[in-house]
Amino acid sequence: MQAKTLVLVIVLGLAAIIGANTLFVVSEYQRGVLLRLGKLHDADLQPGLHIKIPFIDEVRLFDARILTLDTRPERFLTVEKKNVEVDSFTKWRILDVGKYYTATNGEEDRANRLLGQRVNEGLRNQFAERSLQEVVSGERDLLMVELLEQLNGFTRTSIGVEVVDVRVKKIDLPDNLSDAVFQRMRAEREREARELRSKGKEQAEIIRADADRQKAVIEAQAYRDSELLRGEGDARAAAIYAEAYNQDPEFYSFVRSLTAYQKSFNSKSDVLLVDPDSDYFRYLNNAQGK
């Protein structure tokens, strides 16, 4: 009985080992190849459950997600023969699993080295055709598009990978050129500042002259209107005085005399030398004014 149990355990163990070496799973973010006796048998294993021959077939699985290649900064020459230090990165993924395995033996580091060489060569060629201004801002997007097309033309057929994107993180000048470029940029900004100041002064003079002209016009119009109003007021006052005088000339003369007396004798120290029989004392000498 014990012997049968031992044989059963051994059989079950062998079955488990054979099953473990027969069935395998490729996850959704993986791709793989099946090697039979060291030769490529299935060049593209899709995600799911698969069967292999134990101890004869070998499975190699690779990451099918988008991977990042962050290369070291390299120095390139622009069309003006200026050295620039470029730091870039590349996004890539496996497109053809069979070609990828054949070209790189399934080693991601080897794929990164091959891809990095092509990226550096492409960047060097693109920078050699453009000026510093163009690679920094003017044609940077166009440079990346052309480089992406050139890289995919090679990598898809030779390595079996697709370059998704190439981006330049930073472009620096060497230390011996930074000071000269800084001085030139400062001189250019100072020239622009002088131009802006001169234009500002010119506009200020124009605005100031226009304001002075408007001020003179407004003051002239105000003076004209004030004189017209003053003349109309004087005319109306004279008309009212004349109308009041015509209604009772004797009373009007009396009121004017009283006003003159009040102004003349406003202070005790006032002295007035006038003939007592003059018209000035007309109503003081006679209440009837005769």
> Helix coverage percent of residues?
55-70%
The total count of strands amounts to: 9
Question: Which architecture of the largest domain per CATH?
Answer: 2-Layer Sandwich
In round numbers, the mean pLDDT is: 81
- General form: rod-shaped
Largest sheet: 4 strands, antiparallel
Poorly predicted parts: none
How many domains would you count in the coordinates? 3
CATH superfamily of the largest domain: Band 7 domain
In terms of DSSP E residues, the strand content is 15-25%
CATH class term of the largest domain: Alpha Beta
The N- to C-terminal Cα distance equals: 173 Å
Can you tell me about this structure?
With 290 residues, the protein is α+β, with helices and mostly antiparallel strands. The protein has 3 domains: 62 residues, no CATH class; 107 residues, Band 7 domain (Tetrahydropterin Synthase, Chain A); 35 residues, no CATH class. Helix content is 58%, strand content 21%. The protein contains 8 helices and 9 strands. Strands 6, 7, 8 and 9 form a 4-stranded antiparallel beta sheet that branches. A 3-stranded antiparallel beta sheet has the order 3-2-5, with helices on one face. It is rod-shaped. The mean pLDDT is 81.
Structural features:
single chain, 290 residues, alpha+beta, Tetrahydropterin Synthase, Chain A, 3 domains, four-stranded antiparallel sheet, three-stranded antiparallel sheet, 8 helices
